Structure formats: structure tokens, C-alpha cells
Amino acid sequence: MLLEDLRNTREDLERLEQAIAERSLEDPKHSQSNRAVDLYKDNDGSRLREIQSISTGDTFDEFYKQLNNIKDFHKRYPNEPVENLERAYKRRAVGDDTPFASEIDTMFTGEEAFGRYFDMNALHEDYINLPGSKRRITYLQYLDTFDEFEGMPRPDKLKDQYFQYLGNLATYLESFMRRIKPLEDLDRLFISFDEDFLKAWEKDEIAGWQLNTKSTTDGPATEGTGEGIWCKDCEKEFKNDNVYKAHLSGKKHIKNAEARKQRTADGETTSTNGSTTTAATSVHRLKEKAVAEREHRIRKLAAAMQTERSDTRANVERKQGMTDKERQQELAALYAETLDLQSADPSATANGETEDQDEEGKVYNPLKLPLGWDDKPIPFWLYKLHGLGVEFPCEICGNYVYMGRRAFDKHFGEARHLYGLKRLGITNSSMFRDVTGIKEATELWGKLQVDKKQESTASDQVVQMEDGEGNVMPEKVYYDLQKQGLL
Q: Where along the chain is composition biased (Polar residues) (predicted)?
């Protein structure tokens, strides 16, 4: 029950803050009093000059002068709104346009949908513009791989632009988690991330940031995603072994290999007494540690929000499959829903609210129109265009009724209709298109069988043979008699 008591306490504090804000808005006498005091003080002397101009000279001249000033002001600013005193002095209803609600509305962007999805479009643009990023991946691919850093060359990771990108990405993920989980102790979670990183860094177990002093061989090795062959001298990856072997004999590779050997030799000679080299190495290692720490934090944050990540991917795929008109309809529906929530009566009873919610949940469909992709009735003009109001019954399919000519034409090749023909003993379904009655189908099938027999009989009687006595007979009979020796 401690968590429930804590929740009640936080709710009371928020309600008190909201009440204080409403009280300040409903009682503006303090600000007006301060403004009146400033006018009485007359620090710039404008009040004294105005009193002198009114009290001395012709009264009407001063009146018309001020009137002309007012007319000139409205000529210069014709669209200036008039101060609405009725709105200023009208007592505000409880729960109407409260500051607390507006704060919640502005906490998330429209793409985030109150914490359901990520909004990483700007971060995606920053990623594809990084110096070491050679692939221009799509936003969907970025959502799957934004916590994978092995494909970036190690020297490019030490550049300021990459370091700034990691900072922006980690800041966004941390901010998003704080907004969707306000009641959890996230500071302790983030501290555990740092502790895990320090332990892994001391053991040299951070992927992609191990020390190179342990490796004694100069043979080909894979780096990045593990695909292909990595050239340490040129810091370049090759996907084909033949291309890598041809690269070894190139001038650029030979030059880079000699430079690498020279750096290794210089490091060995200065390691005994060169404090400058040690300091430079330590500074370089500190830079790597800072970059690795941000990468580690991003991996942990992404692993803690896998649900939001998968939901974001599904939402992006859904939007990419929508037409522009469907997107406009979705935005209009969201906007209408927001207006309905804002215009709801806060003094309604609980029973009334539940009844309204039930009515909103029911889809108004008096014409019995088919439902579209958004679970709402399709437009009536589309219903008439496709002829969905015309019924096409099929007796072969068990008196099933198809709505619309398109569905009716399509069903002749479907399993339901083919199974019905098979039950009637009909095998050639291509001849029975647009035939829906059982009696018609059986009569047509019988007629086709009779015609088939007649065609076979007629083909046998086409060739006539004549024997030596002048008797005419079919070819088949002639050869049969000849085999029997009767001719």
C-alpha cells in the first residue's frame, strides 16, 4: 500500500498546483494593482504631462487631438482585435481549459501519440549525414539498427559530429523514458547503466572498443558486422577475398602499411621515457571511453523500450501503406476526437458519461454499408460505384449471396464454387462461368457429354472405305473385316 499512498500524495500535490494556478487566473487583482502602482509612480513623467495638457489650453483641442491619434492607430492596425471585456470578467468553469491539461497535451509530439511511438525523424537525418555513414538507410531500417554501432569505422567515431549525434540520441531516449514512466525511479536505473559500463570497461569487454595491444598478428580480420575482410592498415572492409588480395599489392595499401609500422616503431622507442606519448594515449583513450559510454547507454535504453520500438515500426509501416486521402481522414478523425474531449460536459453524471461512451463506440451505419480499413462505413458513392448493393446468389455455393459484381465474378475460381461443381460430378469448371443454378449446371454438363460422344462418333465415320465388291463402310469396320479375312 505504500506505492498507492505515494500515488495519492502526488495526485493531491498536482491538484493543489492546479487549484493555485486557477486561483491566480480568476483573481487578477494583484497584477492590476501592481500596474496601477506603476502608473501612480509616473517614473517617466508621462502622467504629469497628460494632466498638464488637459488642464491647460483649450479642452476641445486636446480632445480632438487624442481622437485623431486613436483614428490613426486603427488605420495603421485595422485588424487589431478589440478587447473582450465579457471574456475577461466571465467566471471560468471548473475543468475548462485548465493549465494542467495543456501541459499534458504539449508533453509529447503528434508523432509520439502520448508516448506510444518514437519520433526519431530528426535523429535519422543526423545519422545519414554523418561523415562515416556510407549507407543511406530508410527510417524503418534506422529504427531497427539505431543501437548498432559496429558498422561505423572506429576513427570516425571520435569525430565531434558523431559524438554530438550520440548525445542527442541518448538524451532523447532518456527524456522519452522519463515522460512515459514518471512514477519509476529512473535515476537509479541510469546509475546502474553507468556502473555496468565501468565494470565492462575495466575488463576491456566493450564491443568495438578493445585495446589493440593484445593482437600480435597482422592477418586479415573481420570488423563491423563481421561480414568480409578488414584491412587494419587502411581501415577498410572488403566483402570479397579476391578484391582484398588485389588491394594488398596497391600503392595506397603499401604506403599505409609502412606508416603503421613506423607508428608502431615510434611507440616502442618512446614507451620507455616518453611521457608525452603516454599522455596522448591516455587522452585518446578518454575520448574513446566517452563515446563508448554513450553507445552503451543507448543500447540499454533501447533494450528497456522494446515495446515502444516495435510499435513504432508497425505504425510507420502502416502509414507507409496508406494513401494521402487516408492519412487526411485519420488526422481529421484525431482532430475531431480531440474537439469532442475538449467540449465534453465536466458536470455530467457517471451514468451519462458511460452512455455517451457506449454511443460513441457504436458505429452509425443505417444503410448497412461495408466497413473500410478504419472500421468505419465506406462512402456511399464508393458503395454505388462498385455496385455493392446488388445481390448475386449462387445455388451451387449453397445459396450464398455475393454483394457486388466484382465479388461475384471472383468467386467462380474460389474453392467454395469449385467444391460445389465437384459434388455435382462436373470437372471442367471453365465452361460453367456465370452458371449458378444446380439444374442449369447438370443440364449443361449432360449436353456437353452428349455432344462429346457425338463428336467422337462423327470423327470415326468421316473416312469411308470400299471393298472389291463395291460395299462402302467406315474405315474402322473395313480394317476389322480385313484382319478377319472376310473381305
A: 342-352
